[in-house]
Design brief:
Elements (H helix, E strand, L loop, with lengths): L2 H25 L3 E3 L6 E3 H11 L3 E3 L10 E3 L4 E3 H9 L4 E6 L2 E6 L10 E10 L10 E4 L4 E4 L5 E7 L1 E8 L6 E7 L3 E2 L2 E3 L17 H5 L5 E4 L1 H4 L11 H5 L5 E2 L9 E2 L7 E5 L2 E2 L4 E2 L4 E2 L6 E7 L13 E7 L8 E6 L3 E11 L3 E10 L3 E3 L9 E17 L2 E16 L3 E18 L3 E18 L6 E21 L2 E21 L9 E2 L3 E15 L4 E15 L2 E6 L10 E7 L4 E19 L2 E12 L1 E4 L10 E4 L7 E14 L4 E18 L15 E17 L4 E15 L15 E2 L6 E10 L4 E10 L3 E2 L4 E5 L2 E5 L6 E2 L3 E10 L2 H5 L3 E9 L9 E6 L7 E6 L6 E9 L1
Length: 881
């Protein structure tokens, strides 16, 4: 090559290099201005802005560009390079500058190798208190994947290496977005600020609605203490379980009723947990006040369809209540005074940022006097109190320990001498440990106890009666986050049951009562469980799991043998077998499969189907509709077999009007075996042969549940409707062991129609108003079908059960809360709540009583018994600082 040409070629190369360098230098400083008032724009709009505002022209093939993809920009301007990064992020594109051209080039997608994946783990907490946020969402929109925090605020995501925009959100809190570069496994902790400082409580943005669509369970409700603190209650006493009655498929038998009935089940078919410890009685004041102090509660989850494999032992539902951990940053106090009780909560750091405590106490302010109609007992009184405690300590980033407890007591004095006391207590110790980046473990030991005691030192009776039940539980849970498409949950639990059905001990030798001491009962209930959460595609997900439970009924005990072919009674006992301590009397086991599948119909709707099987080895023995403090518990044995349920659920869930409305529609069918009923006139108190009073049968419950909810705005609330049936069949080998001729009949908890309407109006930062209305079909009741005269007294005759119904139930409640303007500006915040319970004084029937007419002794009259038949206004004062 001639020397001249060589020089020209070298000069040309240098000129190109220099020009390229100049171009590269210039594009790094180019700024693109956003349109006024817009924080996001589409890729199409972004490319047009680049072409209009800069000297660079995008060049691309139409088919490779996601024109409708939305890009978020913080601020009024953005660097050109940053804007291009947002366009190509995780879209299988790359860009390069060629002169004044920006080439957008499609890149063939490669499946990431296993060693290309890294893990992002961490916790999501409340910024001001350090409280773990349960169910917070971590979402990566570019990958259309994410995760949610578990019951301890922990999450783990396995992702390909890269740069991602991560969005963290939780209902009622300000969402945050941050860009993270994941080049290696890392720990990322997030803190969210409460939105209540600027917005009404429980503000849900449209994108937060994704939680409903991504929740894997059917029949699932998560209760916020904020929203249920806004609605009216009896005497302004906030009760989260009473608030749950406004949700579809959940009812009770009426005012003054303890417990809840879920999808036609009895109250003992629900597993009620406080920090994993069983709570056997959920009410104070004979059902009018809940045992859970709302100030101490963090989170409540209800599973009434698909129950996770980690839970078992009940056939209707699981209600998991989590106590707050306490403020890790500063000391704080809150509480309130009402007409019925006062409460106080103290919390704060033991070691700032690492350890905290929470202690709460609530007590009736005075002895509650009520009349029973008899002059001898007009001075009857009732009082209650409960105490919650929780401690936690972060040993290091991988280990955390908790200690929590609860004690609650009621005391009822009737007349001058007769007195009853009853209550729950629980102690819980837990240890969280993280193995590596993807395996989370929680180990829990709980002690649960319920007891009652009756004392009557009068000259006639002169006795003390007692009964108790203890549960000792050890449980280990493991969550393995393999990758965003696969999560494995597995574990082991073991429960030791110990109960005393009842004792009656005379106080003096000349007492009229006879001493009775029933044999205590013992059992061990171990279980293994596991589940696999699999995301098959962007549309299809499944959760497949199983639980294998065993039940060993143990001595010491006397086991009665009855004549074959005859109804069991005291007269048909032919032998007694004595078992020593620890000897196996009877044994049961059950395989409990769980399966839920979801299909995403669109970005705003999803279809789910589930199947669930559960065994229940412990039973409440009562012949009343609503649980009473003196009810006893009974373990499964040779004659009383475990109850078994099989439930199928199909659900449709939809986000409407960009998240302004949520809709869920579920249909279910539940079959039951070994359901328990009792003979007519059953004698259940202090009966050592209780099996002679028990009948066994089958049941079925089916229905449709609709929930429409408006989660945000000045006016928010929901409407729920349930159309359901619950039926029982008791068909024994003999007439004495058969009810209603062996036909199906409505169960005690059958409600055909149930409607609830909840509305909350928040006009600003000072005033809020709420109203709730409930209507339901009257529950089944047994009516007399004949009468006879005995010794001049008319006695009604009852033959077939539950062939009649009480009158329909309906009630309207109103509430308003006022926060002073000065209170909003101070650290000491206070509010007043005014409520009206039963606004139009509806006398809802709790039961019917039948008696001989005083005017015409030959006639029988029906008396409607109502617990609360008047307007009940109330006021309460609340504070925090």
């Amino acid at each position: 090559m001639p020397t001249f040409l060589r020089v020209c070629f070298i000069f040309h190369i240098c000129l190109l290099s220099a020009s390229s360098a100049l171009v590269a230098q210039s594009h790094t400083d180019v700024v693109v201005r956003m349109p006024d008032g817009e924080a996001s724009l589409s890729v199409r709009q972004a490319l047009r802005l680049i072409a209009d505002q800069t000297s660079f022209k995008p060049s691309y093939v139409d088919q490779s560009i996601p024109f409708d993809k939305k890009i978020k920009v913080n601020g009024s301007t953005i660097l050109l390079d940053d804007l291009l990064d947002k366009i190509v992020l995780a879209e299988n594109l790359k860009y390069q500058f060629e002169g004044n051209l920006i080439l957008l080039i499609a890149v063939k997608k490669k499946a990431p190798l296993k060693n290309d994946n890294v893990t992002m783990k961490g916790q999501v907490r409340e910024a001001s208190t350090g409280e773990a946020l349960i169910g917070a969402t971590i979402w990566i929109d570019s990958l259309k994947t994410g995760s949610s925090t578990n019951s301890y605020g922990f999450f783990s995501l396995s992702l390909p290496k890269g740069v991602y925009d991560v969005r963290v959100s939780f209902v009622g809190y300000k969402s945050i977005e941050t860009r993270l570069t994941l080049a290696e496994s890392t720990e990322e902790n997030f803190s969210l600020e409460s939105a209540e400082a600027n917005l009404p409580e429980l503000v849900v943005s449209p994108k937060d609605f994704d939680v409903l669509l991504t929740t894997k369970n059917t029949g699932y409700h998560k209760i916020s203490r904020n929203i249920f603190g806004k609605i009216p209650y009896f005497l302004s006493e906030v009760d989260v379980l009473q608030g749950a009655l406004l949700l579809p498929g959940i009812r009770n038998v009426g005012e003054d009723a303890t417990g809840i009935n879920v999808r036609g089940g009895s109250a003992d078919n629900n597993l009620i947990l406080l920090d994993e410890a069983v709570i056997f009685n959920t009410s104070h004041f004979f059902g009018l006040v809940g045992v859970f102090n709302p100030e101490a509660i963090n989170d409540i989850e209800i599973y009434k369809g698909d129950v996770p494999a980690s839970y078992g032992g009940r056939t209707s539902s699981v209600v998991s209540v989590r106590q707050r951990e306490g403020n890790k940053e500063r000391f704080a106090f809150s509480g309130g005074l009402g007409l019925l009780s006062g409460r106080l909560v103290a919390e704060g750091p033991l070691v700032k940022g690492k350890s905290s405590f929470l202690a709460s106490v609530r007590s009736s302010l005075f002895n509650i006097n009520y009349e029973l109609g008899d002059n001898n007992v007009r001075r009857s009184t009732l009082n209650f109190a409960d105490f919650n405690m929780k401690l936690n300590y972060d040993l290091n980033s991988k280990n955390k320990v908790y200690l929590s407890g609860y004690v609650g007591k009621d005391r009822n004095k009737v007349g001058e001498t007769f007195q009853r006391t009853w209550g729950n207590s629980a102690l819980i110790a837990r240890w969280n440990h993280i193995f590596g980046n993807r395996l989370f473990s929680n180990h829990t030991f709980t002690l649960s106890e319920y007891s009652y005691k009756t004392e009557d030192p009068s000259e006639i009776s002169n006795f003390i009666g007692t009964s108790y039940i203890f549960n000792y539980t050890f449980k280990s849970d493991f969550n393995f986050y393999s990758n965003p498409d696969n999560t494995y949950n597995f574990g082991y639990s073991s429960i030791i049951h110990r109960l005393n059905p009842g004792d009656r001990i005379p106080l003096t030798e000349d007492a009229s009562v006879v001493e009775i001491k029933l044999s205590s009962e013992h059992a061990v209930e171990p279980a293994l469980y596991g589940s696999w959460e699999k995301k098959w595609s962007r549309r299809i997900e499944t959760v497949a799991g199983a639980r294998w439970s065993r039940f060993y009924y143990l001595g010491p005990s006397n086991d009665y043998i009855y004549v074959n072919g005859l109804p069991k009674s005291r007269t048909s006992i032919v032998d007694t077998v004595q078992y020593k301590f620890g000897q196996i009397i009877d044994f049961y086991e059950g395989f409990e499969p769980r399966l839920v599948a979801s299909y995403k119909l669109s970005k705003a709707s999803i279809l789910k189907a589930s199947y669930n099987k559960n065994y229940q080895y412990i039973h409440r023995i009562t012949n009343s509709i609503s649980p009473a403090p003196t009810d006893i518990w009974k373990l499964s044995d040779r004659y009383i077999k475990p109850q078994v349920s099989n439930q199928w659920t199909l659900g449709y869930y939809r986000d409407m009007f960009n998240g302004n409305l949520e809709l869920s529609l579920e249909a279910y069918f539940k079959s039951l075996s070994n359901t328990i009923a009792f003979k007519n006139g059953a004698d259940l108190l202090l009966n050592e042969t209780i099996e002679t009073e028990v009948l066994a049968g089958i049941g079925r419950a089916y229905g449709t549940e609709l929930l429409v909810r408006k989660p945000e705005g000045v006016l928010r609330g929901w409407i729920s409707y349930t159309l359901a049936r619950a039926e029982t069949q008791i068909k024994g080998a003999t007439v004495e062991e058969t009810l209603n001729d062996g036909d199906f009949f409505p169960s005690d908890y059958d409600r055909t129609h149930d409607v609830s309407v909840v509305s909350i109006y928040d006009e600003g930062r000072q005033w809020s108003f709420s109203a709730t209305f409930n209507f339901s079909t009257g529950r089944p009741v047994t009516l007399p079908d004949a009468k006879y005269v005995y010794d001049g007294v008319i006695v009604p005759n009852f033959s077939k059960r539950n062939q009649g119904r009480l009158s329909d139930y309906h009630r309207l409640d109103l509430s308003t809360t006022y926060v002073s303007r000065k209170s909003l500006e101070r650290k000491f915040k206070s509010s007043w709540t005014f409520s009206i319970y039963n606004v139009y004084a509806r006398r809802n029937a709790y039961s019917y009583l039948f008696r001989q007419s005083a005017l015409d002794p030959s006639q029988t009259e029906t008396i409607r018994y109502s617990v609360l038949g008047a307007i009940i206004p109330s006021v309460s004062y609340n504070f925090k600082f």
